[in-house]
């Protein structure tokens, strides 16, 4: 009887082990496909233009930083200035978005006021309107306000994000109301409850939203392309395509383009690795809650 149980146990473990190995191999293959273009981009950014066409897929044989030096000096440092613009705009927008979204989510989740459901539904309906349809009226409004060609036109309109507000509200619904009532009995006011109870509890959700909103603002191209015409206010995503616009009479400067793409990816990687624990915590929390 005992031998039969061991045989059944081994029989059950074998297909599970094989399936696990196959799954890991499949994931490794998919990861390789995803990472390989990034590898080509990063390794190509350290190759001279002569080697780039001969050795496109391998490691650089002649390692050089000349591409980055030329890139940073391109058009009197325009790339570096645009890079710093993107850093400032993306960080400022993300921080303000998280503050506004957490406050709005707290109000919609834990307070009762007239028209609450209607107002929340109106906010959600704005998510169904493609952002491209709003560019023309936004351009007219901001031109009359005198906001074009400025940092504020790239930051202020983006701080009220419906998606971030919705995610915060959904998470805060899971916070027990009894905990907040106990804090009020102890004399805690609205601001103290928000800063000392709501925000610390919402760190996983805010971390995940921080990654998503930063990447969204960092990768934004169409909106600043329309609203900004002066070079000193343009972000890196608008400036980077200009490397192919007659900057080199010998042809397309692929070495500069690869260096520029690598430079653009670095902040996104830094943000993700710094906040990946919060992002994974939010995913785990959501799966447990579901």
Describe this entry's structure for a reader.
- α1 (2-44) packs antiparallel against α14, α3 crosses α14 (254-289) and α11 (203-218) runs antiparallel to α14 (254-289).
- The chain is mainly α and 290 residues long.
- It has helices spanning 2-44, 49-54, 66-72, 78-110, 116-126, 135-145, 152-155, 162-172, 177-185, 190-201, 203-218, 222-227, 236-239, 254-289.
- It has two domains: 1-74 and 247-273, no CATH class; 81-242, MetI-like fold (Orthogonal Bundle), CATH 1.10.3720.
- The chain contains 14 helices and no strands.
- Helix content is 72%, strand content 0%.
- The protein is globular, with a radius of gyration of 25 Å.
- The longest helix is centred in the first third of the chain and has 43 residues, at 2-44.
What's the helix and strand layout?
Blueprint (H helix, E strand, L loop, with lengths): L1 H43 L4 H6 L11 H7 L5 H33 L5 H11 L8 H11 L6 H4 L6 H11 L4 H9 L4 H12 L1 H16 L3 H6 L8 H4 L14 H36 L1
Q: What is the radius of gyration computed over CA atoms, rounded to a whole number of angstroms?
A: 25 Å
Mean pLDDT: 85
Shape: globular
What gap, in angstroms, lies between the N and C termini?
A: 41 Å
CATH-assigned fold name of the largest domain? MetI-like fold
The CATH architecture name of the largest domain reads: Orthogonal Bundle
Give a brief outline of the structure.
By secondary structure, the protein is mostly helical.
Keywords:
mainly alpha; 290 residues; 14 helices; 72% helix; 2 domains; MetI-like fold
């Amino acid at each position: 009887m005992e031998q039969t149980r061991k045989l059944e146990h081994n029989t059950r473990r074998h297909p599970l082990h094989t399936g696990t190995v196959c799954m890991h191999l499949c994931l490794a293959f998919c990861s390789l496909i995803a990472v390989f273009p990034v590898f080509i981009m990063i390794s190509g950014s350290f190759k001279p233009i002569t080697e780039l066409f001969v050795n496109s897929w391998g490691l650089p044989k002649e390692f050089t930083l000349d591409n980055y030096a030329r890139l940073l000096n391109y058009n009197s440092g325009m790339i570096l200035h645009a890079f710093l613009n993107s850093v400032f705009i993306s960080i400022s927008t993300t921080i303000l978005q998280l503050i506004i979204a957490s406050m709005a989510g707290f109000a919609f989740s834990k307070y009762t006021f007239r028209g609450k459901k209607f107002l929340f539904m109106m906010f959600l309906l704005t998510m169904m309107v493609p952002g491209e349809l709003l560019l023309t009226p936004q351009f007219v409004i901001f031109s009359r306000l005198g906001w074009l060609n400025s940092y504020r036109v790239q930051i202020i309109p983006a701080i009220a994000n419906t998606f971030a507000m919705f995610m915060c509200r959904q998470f805060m619904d899971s916070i027990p109301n009894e905990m907040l009532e106990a804090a009020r009995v102890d004399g805690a006011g609205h601001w103290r409850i928000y800063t000392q109870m709501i925000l610390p509890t919402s760190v996983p959700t805010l971390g995940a939203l921080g990654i998503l909103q930063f990447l969204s603002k960092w990768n934004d191209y169409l909106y600043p392309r329309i609203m900004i015409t002066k070079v000193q206010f343009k972000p890196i995503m608008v400036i980077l395509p200009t490397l192919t616009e007659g900057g080199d009479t010998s042809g397309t400067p692929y070495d500069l383009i690869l260096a520029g793409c690598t430079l653009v990816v670095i902040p996104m990687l830094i943000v993700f690795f710094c906040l990946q624990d919060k992002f994974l915590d939010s995913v785990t929390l959501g799966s447990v809650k579901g």
